[in-house]
Each structure stands twice: as C-alpha cells, then as structure tokens.
Amino acid sequence: MAAAPILARRIARSGVLPLCCRPPSWDRAPRQPPGLPLAPCRAFSNNKIQVELDESSGVAMMKFKSPPVNSLSLDFLTEFSISLEKLENDRACRGVIITSTIPKIFSSGLDIMEMCGKNVEHYGEFWRAVQEMWLRLYGSNMVTVAAVNGSSPAGGCLIALSCDYRIMAENPKFSIGLNEAQLGIVAPFWFKDTFVNVVGHRIAERSLQLGSLHPAPEALKLGLVDELVPEEKLLEKASAVMARWLALPDHARQLTKSMMRKAVLDHLVAHREEDIKNFINFISKESIQKSLRMYMEMLKKKKS
Ligand SMILES: CCCCCCCCCCC/C=C/C(=O)SCCNC(=O)CCNC(=O)[C@H](O)C(C)(C)COP(=O)(O)OP(=O)(O)OC[C@H]1O[C@@H](n2cnc3c(N)ncnc32)[C@H](O)[C@@H]1OP(=O)(O)O
C-alpha cells in the first residue's frame, strides 16, 4: 500500500500536523527521574489518538480521544492510518490494543457531517481515507485487540470487526452493529464481508437488513464480540488475551491471518476506484442527503 504521498497531501490540506513534523514523537514519553532505569515505553499523541508502546511486551495501547463521540472524520481517519503505519513499521511493536478515552463511547462511526452537503472532491477524499484505514487495520500484521468500552455503531463496529479479537464491557446499555440501514444508507461490500467473516452469513444478513444495534449481551451471543468483561477489567483482559496471541511465532500467525483475510482485502484493492465512484454517486443523491439530515436532526432532538 503506497499510501504515504496520499496521506502527506491530505494532511497538508487538512491542517493536521504530520507526526514526522512534530517534535520527535518518541521523545514525548514522560521523562524518568535521574538514576532510575528508563521505562521501556514510547508514546506519541496527535490531536485525536494517543498511542503508547511498551517495548518490553511489544504491545501498543491506542486510545481514541476525540470528543464528543470519537466520530471518524477525515482528520481522525488520517491520524488513525498514520498511527497504524508507524506501529506497523516499528520492529518493537507486535500488537495493538484499541480502546477509547471517552466514557460510554468507543466510536460513533463515520462522521455524518463529512457525508452531508459537501462537494464531490470531498466525498472522494473522505471515502479514500475510510478505505485506507480499513486496509491498514484489517490487513495489519500486528495482533489487534479491540477493547470496546462503549457504544460502537457502524464505522465504530467496523473498527472492532477488523481486529483479531473483540472484548466488550458487559454494560447492556452499550451496543454495537452495522446500523447503516437505519440511516437510509447501505454498508458497502467490504463492511459486509468483514461482518460476514466474523458472524457468518445468516446473522450478518438479518442484522444488516434491520440495521441492528446489538446490546453487549446479544452481541456476545451472536459472536459479534468474543467476550464480555466488567468495564474496569477490560484493559487487563485485553492485555492477557494479547499475551496469549503473542505467545505464538509471528510468522505462522501472520501467514494464517493473511490467508484468512486476503480475498476480502484483494477485492477492495482491485475495485478501490470503482468503490469510491459508487460512494460519491450514492451519497450525492438528494434522497440520501435528506435521510442523513433527518437522522442528524433526530439525534439532536433526542437530546432536548
Ligand atoms: C449501491 C451501494 C453503494 C454503497 C456506497 C456506500 C454508501 C455509504 C456508506 C456509509 C457507511 C457509513 C458508516 C457510518 O459509520 S455512518 C454513522 C453511523 N453512526 C451512528 O448512527 C451513530 C449516531 N450517534 C449515536 O447514536 C449517539 O450519538 C451515540 C450513541 C454515539 C452517543 O450518544 P450520546 O447521547 O452520548 O451523544 P449525542 O447523541 O448527544 O451526540 C453528541 C454529539 O455528537 C454528534 N454525533 C453523534 N454521532 C455522530 C456521527 N456519527 N457523526 C457526526 N456527529 C455525530 C451528535 O449529533 C451530537 O452533536 P451536538 O452536540 O452538536 O448535538
């Protein structure tokens, strides 16, 4: 994936500072008092995502921190892809745990405002960023564990589904699913394929058509998440799971992962431009724009 020049252009336009132009990122870990051995931990943080790599275990903790709801805006997606790329290229990193700093929310999915009232160029750029994020995460060589500590609709669910393992806080108020149909939009084929690969065809078909958001206990029953734990135990459990996965030789696990995911990844890579055109045509329709506007209004009304 030769994404670097595209990312660089997008960053330049979005105003987000690329990590390479910031003060040396690995220097931003807290300084140790003199005399103590250096903690084997490196950290980098940008506007919306914070990452800490523990070099002794090879595990990075990635935390979404984009209030109010960690929606996946163009800037967020760009930062996410850059963070994943940095970790992927770091020989010290073998696994990443993904979670959120926002109480009750893992991610609210794609930022609906990025799909409303914008021009064709913007839609194209946004959709390419969504694709890039998924290609990097689903195709990652690292072990990826989602510690889902809040609600996770649509694009948020896609992030969790793209990981190797999903642990969710056992709060029944938190829900997860591909609810696109409820917004009057359609999950694209690679969202659907990722979902089918986790829960199987029948469950995916029903859930997608109904645009279901499954409360945590139901998500467990459907196999949409692998286990539920009390929220305060989530990160501890994620680390334990990670250690179990990392106990295997990387090359065997990576080749197996690639074998399992290759067909779905290749499908998008082969049809990327066509997929972008489809997105632009679909999202530009006045009827779809109206549905999205109504959905946003409904969200705001729910508050008042
Ligand atoms: C032929 C086929 C071709 C196919 C081509 C492709 C077609 C298009 C594919 C598009 C795929 C889309 C994927 C998506 O991810 S769409 C997004 C789906 N997300 C949702 O439905 C979540 C909506 N949000 C919520 O349910 C709640 O906000 C949530 C449970 C997440 C949190 O609830 P809470 O009560 O805590 O907070 P509020 O509801 O008050 O929200 C706070 C503010 O945040 C705004 N908000 C919420 N979600 C989003 C979002 N996804 N994007 C932008 N903004 C969001 C919300 O409006 C509040 O704003 P204000 O404070 O200004 O009112």
UniProtKB/TrEMBL annotation:
It is found in: Mitochondrion matrix. Transmembrane segments: none annotated. GO terms for molecular function: delta(3)-delta(2)-enoyl-CoA isomerase activity. Pathway: Lipid metabolism; fatty acid beta-oxidation. It catalyses: a (3E)-enoyl-CoA = a 4-saturated (2E)-enoyl-CoA; (3Z)-dodecenoyl-CoA = (2E)-dodecenoyl-CoA; (3Z)-octenoyl-CoA = (2E)-octenoyl-CoA; (3Z)-hexenoyl-CoA = (2E)-hexenoyl-CoA. Its main location: mitochondrion. Its EC number is 5.3.3.8. InterPro entries: ClpP/crotonase-like_dom_sf, Enoyl-CoA_hyd/isom_CS, Enoyl-CoA_hydra/iso. Keywords: Acetylation, Fatty acid metabolism, Isomerase, Lipid metabolism, Mitochondrion, Transit peptide. One of its GO terms (cellular component) is mitochondrial matrix. The keyword Isomerase applies. GO terms for biological process: fatty acid beta-oxidation. Pfam families: ECH_1. Homotrimer. Belongs to the enoyl-CoA hydratase/isomerase family. Key enzyme of fatty acid beta-oxidation. Able to isomerize both 3-cis (3Z) and 3-trans (3E) double bonds into the 2-trans (2E) form in a range of enoyl-CoA species, with a preference for (3Z)-enoyl-CoAs over (3E)-enoyl-CoAs. The catalytic efficiency of this enzyme is not affected by the fatty acyl chain length. This is Enoyl-CoA delta isomerase 1, mitochondrial.
